[in-house]
Amino acid sequence: MTATTCPGCAHAMEALTLEGHSGAAITIDLCATCHAFWFDTHESLKLSPASTLTLFTRIGDATLGENGGVKATFPAIMSCPRCSSRLVPTHDRQRDTPFHYWRCDHRHGRYITFFDFLREKSFIKTLSATELAELRRHVQMVNCSNCGGPVDLKNASACPHCGSPLSILDMKQAERLVSQLRDAATLRPVDPALRMNLLRARHEVEAAFADGRHSQEWWSDVSSSGLVEAGVAALARWIKSSA
Ligand SMILES: [Zn+2]
Ligand SMILES: [Zn+2]
Ligand SMILES: [Zn+2]
Questions:
Q1: Residue 11 contacts residue 5 (beta carbons within 8 Å)
Q2: Chain segment 135-168, per-residue pLDDT in tens
Q3: How far does residue 5's CA lie from ligand 1's centre (Å)?
Q4: Is the Cβ–Cβ distance between 51 and 78 less than 8 Å?
């Protein structure tokens, strides 16, 4: 099979073979440069909890990689990697969270950024007023996790470029995922160390706002990559340390 061409940058995407809900293998394509996935029709719905965790670690890798905090700017016209027709920008909602992607009108699939994928899976929450105040004590400027634009924290609680509210990774959702993983562990048991490490990752993310005992690594990830990215990076570090 030839590699999928990334709609964003026209380079070959990396094919990831993952396990679906039914145990059948599904393939998802990833572009580490554009920070985006291509899902063939409905593949996103078929992801098992274990596969979702795998995508998390891959997002973490790309976030801390050489293109770390740099967001791709997408061309105005992007083509379906399957039929070359123009992809249609689409707005959708998951509970209260709006998210955005590009879909093929001929139902071949869709192209979605890491950030919107996390939004779709309800892994993103808006920063509370207290968290925002704590953030301002440490950092003057962050890059928007949605568009990559700089946000001056002195006067803004939302991105002036794209309007996204300042957001962080919702660690409660990550824990829920691990519970699902445990419930669904019919094929192979869940490593108890993974659950332990997720609790630590949650602590690391939340402690950053709770009691001032945050690590230097955390704040440097926040200011170089962004808030959501720092959360994903913390999570990916812990998931890996239990692998
Ligand atoms: Zn790309
Ligand atoms: Zn198509
Ligand atoms: Zn923005």
A1: yes
A2: 888 888 888 888 888 899 888 888 998 888 888 8
A3: 8
A4: no
